[in-house]
């Protein structure tokens, strides 16, 4: 354990004078209001996962293609991860969604508690904007399930 503590000390932020500057720059970039939302086409609409000062854990949101092309798209929140975590007493982190082809109406939402590797998969209906009632949640040990395609983000 002594070797671990020694290595940690060498790599800790206090031992790296440029750390705070890099951290502040990265934080400013991630919080920039002029970021371009990365689109994902699903069920005839544009989806995007977004984090900002009001949504620290993030929101999964959607808009139309015409609106996305405008200077100020009107986004509709589909899933608020902060609100979900507060309601359930968990520190949920959105790890992505994998939607059933070809309709792309039902998706498996991948959530991890506190950002751990293990995820909980829940069935979500894009049309109603709700988790499917009566569907069971599945806790997977990692982001990829045997025999399944990897979870695709946003």
Description:
The protein is of the alpha+beta class. Helix content is 22%, strand content 31%. It is built from four helices and nine strands. Strands 5, 6, 7, 8 and 9 form a five-stranded antiparallel beta sheet that branches. A hairpin with a 6-residue loop joins β5 and β6. The protein is globular, with a radius of gyration of 19 Å. The protein starts with a helix and ends in a 14-residue tail after the last strand.
Could you describe the largest sheet, including whether it forms a barrel? 5 strands, antiparallel
Estimate what percentage of residues fall within beta strands. Answer: 25-35%
How many helices? 4
Number of strands: 9
State the helical fraction. Answer: 10-25%
Query: What is the CA–CA distance across the termini?
Result: 40 Å
Mean pLDDT: 85
How are helices and strands ordered from N to C? HHEEEHEHEEEEE
Contiguous uncertain segments of 5+ residues: none
Shape: globular
Write the layout of secondary structure elements.
Blueprint: H1 2-11, H2 19-30, E1 40-42, E2 45-50, E3 59-63, H3 65-68, E4 76-80, H4 81-88, E5 92-99, E6 106-113, E7 119-125, E8 130-131, E9 138-140
Antiparallel strand pairs: 1-2, 2-3, 3-4, 5-6, 6-7, 7-8, 7-9
């Amino acid at each position: 354990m002594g070797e671990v503590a020694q290595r940690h000390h060498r790599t800790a932020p206090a031992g790296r004078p440029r750390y705070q500057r890099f951290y502040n720059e990265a934080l400013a970039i991630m919080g920039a209001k002029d970021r371009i939302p990365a689109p994902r086409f699903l069920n005839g609409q544009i989806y995007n996962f977004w984090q900002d000062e009001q949504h620290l854990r993030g929101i999964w949101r959607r808009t139309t293609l015409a609106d996305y092309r405008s200077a100020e798209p009107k986004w509709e929140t589909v899933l608020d991860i902060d609100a979900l975590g507060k309601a359930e007493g968990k520190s949920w982190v959105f790890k992505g969604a994998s939607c059933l082809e070809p309709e792309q109406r039902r998706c498996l939402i991948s959530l991890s508690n506190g950002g751990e590797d293990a995820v909980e998969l829940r069935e979500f209906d894009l049309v109603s904007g709700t988790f499917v009632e009566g569907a069971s949640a599945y806790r997977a040990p990692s982001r990829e399930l045997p025999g399944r395609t990897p979870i695709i983000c946003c």
